[in-house]
Design a protein that fits this description.
The complex is a heterodimer of chains A (about 350) and B (about 260). Chain A has 14 helices and two strands. Chain A is mostly helical and about 350 residues long. The model of chain A has no long low-confidence stretch (mean pLDDT about 85). In chain B, the strands form three sheets. Chain B has a six-stranded mixed beta sheet, with helices on both faces. Chain B has a four-stranded antiparallel beta sheet with strand order 2-1-4-5, with helices on one face. The N and C termini of chain B lie far apart (about 40 Å). Classes of the chains: A mainly alpha (about 350), B alpha/beta (about 260).
Amino acid sequence: MSYQKFLNLFREKNRLNATVLLVFIALVIVLSLSNGSVELSSHELIKAFIREGDLTNQIIFWELRLPRLIASLLVGSALGMSGALLQGMLRNGLASPYLLGISAGSGLVIVLLISMGLWLSWIPIAAWIGAIITTLIVYCLAKSGTSISVERLILAGVALSSLFGSIQSMLLLQTEDGRVQAALTWLIGSLNSRGWTEIKLAGPPIIFALVVGLLLSRQLNLLGLGDELSVGLGNSLFRSRCLIGASATLLAASSVSVGGLIGFVGLIVPHAVRFLFGTDYKVVLPFSALLGAFTLSSADLIARSGSIELPVGIITSLLGAPIFIVLLYKRQKSLTSMR
Amino acid sequence: MTLITKDFSTGYEENKIIKSISLSLEKSEWLGIVGANGSGKSTFLKGISRILDAHKGNAYLDGQDIHHSSTKEIAKKISVLPQHQRSNLTLTVYELVCLGRSPHKKWWELDLDENDHIQVERSIELTDMTAFKDKPVDTLSGGQRQRAFLSLALAQDAKTLLLDEPTTFLDLRYQLQFLDLLKKINQEQEISIVTVIHDLNLAARYCDRIAVLKDGELLAIDKPREVLTDELMKQAFQVETCQIETPIGLQICTIKSF
């Protein structure tokens, strides 16, 4: 088979996979917009979309469900790609978007503001700033001369997370009960009542970082060959680790500012993509964004479908862990059969 | 393409391993680097391939200071094949070799142009990997895998090739096949080669000159016959050897260690 034929076949296969995934996402979009405490028929949905008919339906569509759906798609794709970028850069399957101190930084700021009852409407921006500053500190700790050590990045992230986590727990213990619940909703992750304000704030950086992230696929493939070969092929480790880390941080910090610390999506989605579609980062990155968007929007649909609405973070962890175990088991089986 | 090191020292952070080595590599020459474990062979290779910084002195490629040039610029002139080639990617041989064109691309340029594909095809042909080009690298045997990574290095279109113990994980047949292939590339493509090599007999058979390292210093550099002497081998490896003339040239026999 000539390379061109192979490439065409590969691209065709991926085009088909992408189409299937997009159809699933479209299905979740329709279900998310029509399902809820007030059911909207397809006719009512279209009417509300063109701003006609019942005013309540229009408000439900435009002010509640659509922004929440867009938020879930944006945050899901951001978490999926952020996880893929970090797992590729750190060559560590356990890397999640929160590994570089993002959860610790934003979590601490959120708890600090909520416990003091200060600037509550500024929580999204404050969480974003907290995440970025903490990651910058982690990078400074990992930098040695003109190089950044992967081990030091991971260890600095773990150390800072532990330090900030203990301060966070101390603050939570001294906070009154009502406020603790508000803080926990952020720490578990929820998309409840997320509106256009959050989307306007986090949307542009997420879209920008998604585009930059897609362009980093070759650098991730090069890093996958090991440091020595990667440098031998002209890849500056310092520059690529800064670029990849910055994109992943921007994605994760922006998603935290919308939905809080939603767990497991950024960890599992890249694994699922590698298992289903292969390990070439030209494929892993776009598919992680798509599958992340699908996963979070579906999880949010489930979270608000029961009699009591649950934070979406609980659903992603509750469903994510068993799915992860099944994938791990299947992968083990396929590896064994290959030997 | 001439590689020159002048008073060159390198190592890991503060730990200076290579101490003031001065040598040169001529165009189309094959230089073997031998020495006992811990003598600094691989460190020297990492130093001249820009993976490690220069602690003192300089390494020049055609007059251009390697450590004061961009990684990409150097990668267009020197390709490196480390001892351990790991890949956690399920790329096909063709996709892997395409990565060899990276030095010629900007970081945001994902697609290769026609010229890049011609170079990739040529590198695969040169290493006799055409039949395997659509196979995933992780399904290849050790010898085929080594050739696939050599194709990757050749796709860089560099005129100097640095290899760290390229035959370590290969059986006897694949060792000879791989070194014959390197000789062909060395002669036909006029590519200068530097290899760290443990097997002195293979070094004697294939290399134009041999550099002997001991404790990070250059003990000797000359033609195999001048270097692989009983006295130098005793100094470098703490072993007693004797030289034997064979139909394939000079070979070394190890008698005992001290």
